[in-house]
């Protein structure tokens, strides 16, 4: 998920955290939730079980409103509005 992907000076930390939290909050919540669930469950699964669960999650994600909004924003060359999903 890239939650720890950069270092900033202490004076800039609050602004960096605010920007990152807004990016997450404006993102596809359903997809982020599935990613978190899969990551947490992966510690108790075999590789084969994890791949199967990931395939199932992908099939749900591909059919979601978030996925359709992501495709629309790409073709319309605009920012996505996942809050409407």
Provide a descriptive summary of the structure in words.
- By secondary structure, the chain is mostly helical.
- The chain has a domain at 27-84: Lyase 2-enoyl-coa Hydratase, Chain  A, domain 2 (Orthogonal Bundle).
- Helix content is 64%, strand content 0%.
- It has four helices and no strands.
- It has helices at 13-25, 29-42, 47-62, 65-75.
- The two termini are 21 Å apart.
- The model has no long low-confidence stretch (mean pLDDT 91).
Q: Number of DSSP strands?
A: 0
Q: What percent of residues are in strands?
A: under 5%
The arrangement of helices and strands along the chain is HHHH
Q: Which residues sit in consecutive blocks of at least 5 with pLDDT less than 50?
A: none
Could you say what the CATH topology of one domain is called?
Lyase 2-enoyl-coa Hydratase, Chain  A, domain 2
Q: Can you tell me the CATH superfamily of one domain?
A: Lyase 2-enoyl-coa Hydratase, Chain  A, domain 2
Helix count? 4
Portion of residues in helices? 55-70%
Shape: flat
What gap, in angstroms, lies between the N and C termini? 21 Å
CATH architecture annotation of one domain: Orthogonal Bundle
Organism: Mycolicibacterium vanbaalenii
GO molecular function: isomerase activity
Keywords: Isomerase
EC number: 5.3.3.18
Helix and strand layout, with pairings?
Blueprint: H1 13-25, H2 29-42, H3 47-62, H4 65-75
Helix pairs in contact: 2-3
Keywords: Isomerase
InterPro entries: ClpP/crotonase-like_dom_sf, Enoyl-CoA_hydra/iso
Enzyme class: isomerase
């Amino acid at each position: 998920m890239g939650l720890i992907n950069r270092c900033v000076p202490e004076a800039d930390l609050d602004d960096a955290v605010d920007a990152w939290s807004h990016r997450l909050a404006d993102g596809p919540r359903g997809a982020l939730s599935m990613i978190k669930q899969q990551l947490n469950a992966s510690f108790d699964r075999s590789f084969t079980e994890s791949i199967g669960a990931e395939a199932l999650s992908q099939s749900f994600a591909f059919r979601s409103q978030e996925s359709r909004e992501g495709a629309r924003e790409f073709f319309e060359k605009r920012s996505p509005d996942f809050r409407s999903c």
